Amino acid sequence: MSQGAPVPRDDDQRLRALSRLGVETTGAEPALDRLVRLAARMLRAPLACLSFVGRDRQWVKSAVGFEAGEVARSEAFCAHAILGEGVMEVEDAEADPRFATHPWVVGPPRVRFYAAAPLLVEPGRAVGTLCVMDTASRPPLEPDERDALLDLAAACVSTLRARQLAAEVSFARSEIERLTSHDPLTGTLNRRGLTERLQTALALARRTDSTVTVTLLDLVGFAALNDRHGHAVADEALQVVGRRLVDAVRDHDLVARTGGDEFAVVLQACDEASAVVVAARLLADLARPHAVAGLSLVLPACAGVATFPRDAEDLTGLLRAADVALARAKAAGGGALAYVPEAEGGS
């Protein structure tokens, strides 16, 4: 058994730094592969790899000259190399009691010489190594060779940090997009998000000669519910409605909260007859008792349905047509459903 390296006192902080880099969740990265190949060429080594040391294992991100997976941390060369800031060298691993029984020594690729520069994310804290290896023992590296290996390891860290920064920027942008396009209470789209997504849906429908149906829903008696039970219960009721609507439609359909107690459902590639069936089902579902804040509440609604391209040829017209249908449904009372044109349907 190889002699395991001691665990640094700040290993938890080191592991957090490793986690932030996201190397476990990404595949091959050409920029890192090039640096590993360059290390092998510059140091005339048949084997090279970029590896990381986790809590219990070492795994290889990029390798030259051999197929490498992972080994236990207690077996890892790199677990020793991350303890310092300079290059660690092993001239003959077979003669070194720390590594004589290492899987890479007793089996393929049969490492004898090993030299590694730590991947320092900050002074004194390394997450892994860039290493070169040989199947024959070798004398120590020359000073300029050590400097080259350290420089290449630093370039690997810079590449990882650039990718990490790009990922963080992308996440921040997606969060901003989510916050500006989604209702914070229900998690459904807000009016802006609905408008943007509906424009896209209409453009697709035009290209594919398909349909888009908009159903506008207005909760009946919601103001009275709010007055009687308070804002907390009313907010939870809106969340229940949002979940019910999302669960009732397909993944590519859209659900939005467009006002205080108003919602919209957009069904893509769905004709009006099918949309009316869906709307009726939604109204029936909302009219059943729901568990809200320990209460059993009925959340009746009215709905108005309009379909592109039959009822309107653009976004504004489609929303207006659905709103007209909703007004007719509201005039008919709770639970009513209306669609346009009136000559073809009613409440």
Q: What is the fold named in CATH at topology level of the largest domain? A: Beta-Lactamase
**Would you list the SSEs in sequence order as H and E?**
HHEEEHEHEEHHEHHEEHEEEHE
Q: Low-confidence parts lasting 5 or more residues at pLDDT below 50?
A: 342-347
CATH architecture of the largest domain: 2-Layer Sandwich
User: Strand arrangement, largest sheet?
Assistant: 3-2-1-6-5-4
Structure description:
This protein has 2 domains: 11-176, 2-Layer Sandwich (Beta-Lactamase), CATH 3.30.450; 191-344, 2-Layer Sandwich (Alpha-Beta Plaits), CATH 3.30.70.270. The protein has a 6-stranded antiparallel sheet with strand order 3-2-1-6-5-4. It has a 5-stranded mixed sheet with strand order 8-9-7-12-13, sandwiched between helices. It has helices at residues 11-21, 30-42, 77-81, 103-106, 143-181, 191-208, 222-229, 231-248, 272-286, 315-332; strands at residues 47-53, 57-64, 70-72, 88-90, 113-122, 125-134, 212-219, 254-257, 262-268, 289-292, 295-298, 301-308, 337-339. Helix 7 (222-229) packs across helix 8 and helix 8 (231-248) runs antiparallel to helix 9. The protein has 347 residues and is an alpha+beta fold. The longest helix is centred in the middle third of the chain and has 39 residues, at 143-181. Helix content is 43%, strand content 23%. It is built from 10 helices and 13 strands. Residues 342-347 have low confidence and may be disordered.
